[in-house]
Design goal:
The structure is a single chain. By secondary structure, this protein is an alpha+beta fold. Helices cover 26% and strands 22% of the residues. The N and C termini lie far apart (42 Å).
Length: 129
C-alpha cells in the first residue's frame, strides 16, 4: 500500500462535489514514470451527467500526455470499498488490463488487477477491419 497515493486520493476526495448523494470518492492514478493525477466525483442534477473520480483522473492524465498507468487508488467511506463502475473499467481498459486497482475504505482494502474486473474488455482490435 502506497501511503503517498492514499493521501493524494483523500485530498481529492475532500474536493468531491456530491450534493445529491453525499457519496464522495477520491482517486489517485499513478503513471508508469511515477507521476500522480487525482480526481474526485462530480455530481450533476441530471444524474446521468455525473463524472466518476476515476474518469476525472484519467482525463487529467491523458490531457497531460500520460498513456501508461501502473496503479489506481480509490478512497471512499464505504465498507467494503467498491471496485470502479463498469464505465470506468472500460475507460481504464483502453490503456491496458494490467493496472493494479486498490480500493481503500475506513478499515478494509481490496486489490485487483483491472483484467480481473473486466475480462475480455472491448478494445481497438475489434474496430480493425
Amino acid at each position: 500500500m502506497d501511503e503517498r497515493l492514499i493521501h493524494a486520493a483523500r485530498q481529492a476526495q475532500a474536493n468531491a462535489y456530491a450534493p445529491y448523494s453525499g457519496y464522495t470518492v477520491g482517486v489517485a492514478l499513478e503513471t508508469a514514470n511515477g507521476d500522480v493525477f487525482t480526481g474526485a466525483n462530480v455530481e450533476n442534477a441530471s444524474f446521468g451527467l455525473a463524472n466518476c473520480a476515476e474518469r476525472v483522473a484519467l482525463g487529467a492524465a491523458v490531457t497531460a500526455g500520460a498513456r501508461r498507468f501502473t496503479r489506481l487508488v480509490i478512497v471512499t467511506h464505504s465498507e467494503p470499498p467498491p471496485a470502479p463502475c463498469g464505465a470506468c473499467r472500460q475507460a481504464l481498459a483502453e490503456f491496458g488490463s494490467d493496472l493494479i486497482v486498490e480500493s481503500v475504505g475506513p478499515s478494509e482494502t481490496r486489490v485487483w488487477q483491472l483484467g480481473q474486473l473486466l475480462p475480455d474488455a472491448f478494445g481497438g482490435e475489434y474496430l480493425e477491419s
